[in-house]
Sequence to fold (215 residues):
Amino acid sequence: MTPTALPSQRVGEFLFYPFVRVAGLQSLLLGLAGIALAGWLGFIQGLHFDGVLDVHVGAHLPWWMSLGEGLINWLSLAALLFIAGKIVSRTRFRAVDLFGTQALARWPMLLVSLMCLAPGFHRYSEALVKALLKMTDKPGRVVLPPINADTWVFGVVMLGMLSCTVWMVALMWQSFAHSCNARGGKAVAAFMVSLLLAEVLSKVLIVQMLISTHP
Fold:
């Protein structure tokens, strides 16, 4: 008899090894839904996923630009990993599996967009930006906003952002390794180089998107 997985094991598999069970078109549709929802939540609060690994609070942009940021981030890395997979993998693999699981690997950013809805996070972010702008106008000692409840909310959200980014990178690696059947030092190096190049490529494309709409 095959032992039945405990609920905790199933949750752990879903959170950290989802591509064992979900791949192909299913992962693509779920991933795109997550990217779209994260983009919409970003749109309503001025949150930007302006790079494969980046999250920043900024100006409110049209909803389609918020969605565009997520799509650019996904496609930048997935396309470079597809090329890397062709180089390091000795077996054939399906593009839909890699692109689909890479889309699904971005789902921790949906949690980030939900965490950032905390009002205290945005209040402290605005106060921090004002303090930094004052330092720019009048160079000298930085006077940070006073420590209050918003400060703790901001700290918890920032810690959550960092954790979700690490988690997302781990999922991206799992996606690459599983979809392309890539293991070993060459695969790790190919993944890291692709991730760094995708970070640069995504920023360039997002900036070009902004310039094309605001000449």
Remarks:
- Residues 19-213 form one domain.
- The mean pLDDT is 86.
- Strands lie at 47-48, 56-57.
- The chain has eight helices and two strands.
